[in-house]
C-alpha cells in the first residue's frame, strides 16, 4: 500500500502567519501523542515512523499498537515511513526520535528539509560520546534551521487521551516560541513559552537518570524519606549542571525541570522509574534491555551526563552512582553505599 503525505506546496511563510502544516519525525509513543494533540489543535499533520507497519496502522486503522496501544488516534493524522514525504510542505518539524538516534535521523532528513521550517526538539537526552545536548547535535547537522525545545511533565498516553498537560516550549527567538504555542496549544495541552532552550533540555535529560535512581530506592523498599531526599538532591544536580551550561535557574525549577522530575521519578508509568525499580528488586540490566523496543533514555544518558559533569568540574553523585550501577562497576548495594558514605556537608554547597 502506498501511504501518501502531502501537506501542500513548499513555501516560506512570513513569521507572523500561523503554522498550519506540521511534520512529526518519530512514530514512538511521544511522536504519536504529539501528532494527536497537534491534529486536535487543528493542524494538518504527517508523521514519519521508521517502521512501515506503524505508519500503515496509524493511517489506515488510526492506532499505533506497537508504541501507543489502546489509544484511538485522530483519523486526520497521516503517516508514512518515507522521510521525504513526511517533510514535504511542512511549516515546522517536530523531531521526536530517541536522543541517540537524533544525529542519523536528522542527517537522513537534511536533504528533504522544507525551506524555512523550524525544528522542535522533543527528545530528552544527551548524546553519548560527544556529550552534546539535542540542540547542539541538531545545530551540527542542520546549522541554519531555527530551533525550539518542547519539554515538560508529559506521559504520552495521557497527552494522547487529552488529559490536561502543561509543557515548556523554549526558543532563543521568542516569536518562534509564541508561534509554536499557538500552533500546538489547546484547552488541555497547555504550552508555556520560554526563551531558555538549554535550561529546558538539561532538566529533561537529567531527570531520566534521577528517575532510575528513585526507582532503585523504591525497588529496594528504602522508604519515602529516601525518595524525597533523592528528588531534592537530584534537583540540586540538575541546577548545578544547568548553571554550568548557561541555563537559568528558574527554568530548571519550572515544568521542564522540577515538574518533569516529580512526574517521572514518582510514577510507575515511567519507563526509567520502572527500570530502576526492577534493578532495585534484583533484576539484571541485561534482562531488562534484551528485546526491548521502547526507550529508557536514562540508560545511555547516565554515562553522557556524568562525562559532561566531569568536563565542567561539577559533582553529580546520584547520576554517578546510577552510571556505575548501569555500567556494572557497582551492584545495587555498592551504588547505595557510594551515596551513603559521602561526607556530610552544607546543603547549599
Ligand atoms: N513516551 C513519553 O511519554 C515521552 C517521551 N519523550 C521522549 O521522546 C523520545 C522518543 O521516545 P518515545 O516516543 O517514547 O519512544 P518509544 O519508546 O515509544 O519508541 C521507540 C521509538 O524509537 C524509534 N527508534 C528506535 N531506534 C531508532 C533508531 N536507531 N533510529 C530512529 N528511530 C529509532 C522507534 O522506531 C520508535 O519510534 C525520547 O527521547 C523520550 O525521552 C518525551 C516526553 C514523553
Ligand atoms: O519524559 C517522560 C515524561 O515527561 C517519559 O518518561 P519515561 O521515558 O521514563 O517513561
Molecular structure report:
The chain contains 16 helices and eight strands. The chain is an alpha/beta fold. The protein is globular and about 55 Å long. Bound molecules: 1,4-dihydronicotinamide adenine dinucleotide (NAI) and 1,3-dihydroxyacetonephosphate. 1,4-dihydronicotinamide adenine dinucleotide binds at residues 26-31, 50-51, 67, 96-99, 101, 105, 122-125, 154-156, 294-295, 297.
Largest sheet: 8 strands, mixed
Q: Ranges with pLDDT <50 over ≥5 residues?
A: 7-13
Number of helices: 16
What is the fold named in CATH at topology level of the largest domain?
Rossmann fold
Order of helices and strands: EHEHEHEHEHEHEHEHHHHHHHHH
β-strand number: 8
CATH superfamily caption of the largest domain = NAD(P)-binding Rossmann-like Domain
Shape: globular
CATH C-level class of the largest domain? Alpha Beta
What is the CATH architecture descriptor of the largest domain?
Answer: 3-Layer(aba) Sandwich
Termini separation comes to 61 Å
Small-molecule binders here are:
1,4-dihydronicotinamide adenine dinucleotide, 1,3-dihydroxyacetonephosphate
* Helix amount: 40-55%
Question: Structural class per helix/strand content?
Answer: alpha/beta
Count structural domains. Answer: 2
Bin the strand percentage: 5-15%
Computed CA radius of gyration, to the nearest angstrom: 20 Å
Strand order of the largest sheet: 3-2-1-4-5-6-7-8
Q: Indicate the multimeric state.
A: single chain
